What we know:
The complex is a heterodimer.
Chain A: H1 5-16, H2 21-34, H3 37-53, E1 62-65, H4 70-82, H5 97-111, H6 116-138, H7 144-152
Helix pairs in contact in A: 1-2, 1-3, 2-3, 4-7
Chain B: E1 2-5, H1 8-20, H2 26-37, H3 43-55, E2 59-67, E3 73-80, H4 82-99, H5 103-108
Antiparallel strand pairs in B: 2-3
Helix pairs in contact in B: 1-2
Amino acid sequence: xxxxxxxxxxxxxxxxxxDDGPLVGDLLEEFERRQSYAWLWWQVxxxxxxxxxxxxxxIRPLRLVDDQPVEAMVRTHRWRARCRPVNLSASPIxxxxxxxxxxxxxxxxxxxxxxxxxxxxxxxxxxxLGAVLVLLGSRSTPPRSIQAHMRAG
Amino acid sequence: MARHLLTDFELxxxxxxxxxxxxxxxxxxxxxxxxxxxxxxxxxxxxxxxDRLERNRLVSSSVGAPTAERGGRARxxxxxxxxxxxxxxxxxxALVALWRGVPQLKETRT
Lengths: 153, 110
């Protein structure tokens, strides 16, 4: 590289980042000491990449919350009590139990008609289990600390 | 209670500024980090992190007089604010707490 590469590189950087005069000055000062074109280009390209791919609006530093506020715990408990899901199907995977039962029924109807009794028993047991789960869900109580806060609120 | 924790590079920048003192500007800070830790510093990345720290009021900066050796460009001097010192202390405490009780790390400690 020729000597003209130095001002050209820095002028290029200054044109792209017009508000970064101190950075360009730092690069020029350090280049005078190092006399390394590789270092200078590495710095110039790095500065451009940092500005291009950096997130100027990012929120730093991280904020760690030591304790969850009691109000948030109460809200969370109420939300969970309202949205408690109950899986009434025979499958542990939600939304596929009905399809699985339908396919099993069709398969049994064709291959083993005598197994209908076992399937009927399983369906009745499933409904019973679902009813028990619903009852248990409606009777669940929050921890005492949250209960006290809910009473106070 | 919320507290500030710095990234490793931000912590290096803050400590380097504190080590240098009142004359901490870009080149000095980068040299301090490179000489003490051996980490290569991109000045552009350092300025981006310092801008971020200043937005969060953890450091403050002031522009000095233009000098001929820098082609008429001024130096930007950085100082750590009291909030920055507290953030560095919080980060150090968090790292020490993580460090404590790890036997593999205890063996390599000097």
